[in-house]
Amino acid sequence: MTSPDWVAQLRELPSPFTELLGLRIDRLASDEVTASLTVDPERHLHPWGAVHGGVYCALIETLATLGAQLSAIPAGKLASGIENHTSFLRQVRDGELRGRATAINRGRQLHLWAVTISDDRDRPVAHGLVRLALLDGIPDQSPGSSREMRPTT
After folding, report:
1. pLDDT tens string 21-52
2. Residue in 61, 83, 96, 148 annotated catalytic
3. Are the C-beta atoms of 74 and 51 separated by less than 8 Å?
């Protein structure tokens, strides 16, 4: 079970990368993470006018990592992606993207998460599997922050 305090702390952590992408976390729970993003032509499209594959990879990695962190941080660990296999299913040029990550396996040392990105017509546009290692020890604070991320006893 995930403490509501960890959910609140993860939501409040500054994340320049997700802010740059324009990612909005909608639900953050130990078994599911959902988020949405409005496609921005200035940030998300490749020169041929569709969402760049790196945007999908970043969304998939971010959602899986957030879900795994909810198990890792209370145990004094840090979840770190070690494999991201993303398949691109359909081009998107505008509108909303929605991501949903679910845990396939949450072990003591490794997690496996599946993530599906859908367009605003609920069509799958990308799917990914992310394997994460739960590493011992976590930094005293998050990058760019004076806030500590430590389990409280």
Report:
1. 999 999 998 889 999 999 999 999 999 999 99
2. 61
3. no
**0.70 surpassed by pTM:** yes
Whether pLDDT at 77 is above 50: yes
* C-alpha to C-alpha distance for 92 and 120, rounded to whole angstroms: 10
SS3 sequence of the chain: CCCHHHHHHHHHCCCHHHHHHCCEEEEECCCEEEEEEECCCCCCECCCCCECHHHHHHHHHHHHHHHHHHHHHHHCEEEEEEEEEEEECCCCCCCEEEEEEEEEEECCCEEEEEEEEECCCCCEEEEEEEEEEEEECCCCECCCCCCECCCCC
83 is annotated as an active-site residue: no
